């Protein structure tokens, strides 16, 4: 009887050892057990990571932070978050402080286009064991040429798509104008040369200008980035007074914090001008659900975006770049580049349910909002995150 039990236990151990995680995230047992990969334990357990954000805290970045930390802790890592209050020097100093404090991985967000490539290259030369992934951070040299950094994955939202979807919603509001090939008059909330995401969104927006489908009456942006909502409200109220009724067909907002300021200005003035935006949070949903001016937004799922970034950073730390490249949102050109797909959330959707928030938005939003299929993974990561 003991001999039979011993044989059974041996068989179980052999079977378990054949279920490893291959470099491309697939089992590779094959027909020869001797050549198969052994089971991989969690290679990032006990590591220390941080999310370092250039901008001030906001609801969407809090969602990002919570998602990042939750995923890191599920993977057995220690995680911290630092907001840098729109300070280039604070962003750089925080990265250096974390590198000196022996953090194993950093997710750094919204670094300036004029210094990020050179600065992060120098950091990694000094701390070669550190792994870095970036979000909304473009790499260019002093001549404006696009660059990459070996081992650093750049993450973005699909910003041109995020910009275009709300414009399409505006055009749908004015079928008579579009049928006559008349441009729709838009007041644009946009800030140039501030963060790379806004510049990328301008590309998606500008296509419609070039085609003559829209006409931008004016651009406006907040003066105080530390108080974007109140500052945007003041700016919007002063600009709205320059136009007569009917001159503005709609307002397009590049960022939801700015959109909240615009909405408050519209309410203060009793205006019925429709507005659309990019990004989402609970307060946005509440304002859209009032059934007034805020008609739609294009967004990614900020409650999942931090998980996505943490997965990428963890795979970097594990040296599993093939699993990163295998993801559907990976771009070979320029390389080490990934983009998060977007979804559209409409006023009708948020008004169709009760007490809708980002936590239950999936109940009414399109399936694209909760899609996770684009996220990179492998067997050990799937196993840990499903526990």
Provide key terms for this protein.
14 helices, globular, 387 residues, alpha/beta, 7-stranded mixed β-sheet, 6-stranded mixed β-sheet, single chain, disordered N terminus
Write the layout of secondary structure elements.
Elements: H1 2-17, E1 48-53, H2 59-74, E2 78-83, H3 88-100, E3 105-109, H4 116-126, E4 131-135, E5 153-157, H5 159-173, H6 175-179, E6 184-189, H7 196-210, E7 214-220, H8 228-240, E8 250-253, H9 256-269, E9 275-278, H10 282-288, E10 294-299, H11 302-317, H12 321-325, E11 330-331, E12 337-340, E13 343-346, H13 347-351, H14 379-386
Parallel strand pairs: 1-2, 1-3, 3-4, 4-5, 5-12, 6-7, 6-8, 8-9, 9-10
Antiparallel strand pairs: 10-13, 11-12
Query: What is the CA-CA span between the terminal residues?
Result: 35 Å
Trace the largest sheet across and list its strands: 2-1-3-4-5-12-11
Q: Regions with pLDDT < 50 over 5+ consecutive residues?
A: 1-37
**Number of discrete helical segments:** 14
Strand segment tally = 13
Question: Which percent range describes the beta-strand content?
Answer: 15-25%
Q: Mean pLDDT, nearest integer?
A: 90
Query: What is the gyration radius calculated from CA atoms?
Result: 24 Å
Class by helix and strand content? alpha/beta
Envelope shape:
globular
Query: How do the helices and strands follow one another from N- to C-terminus?
Result: HEHEHEHEEHHEHEHEHEHEHHEEEHH
Biggest beta-sheet profile = 7 strands, mixed
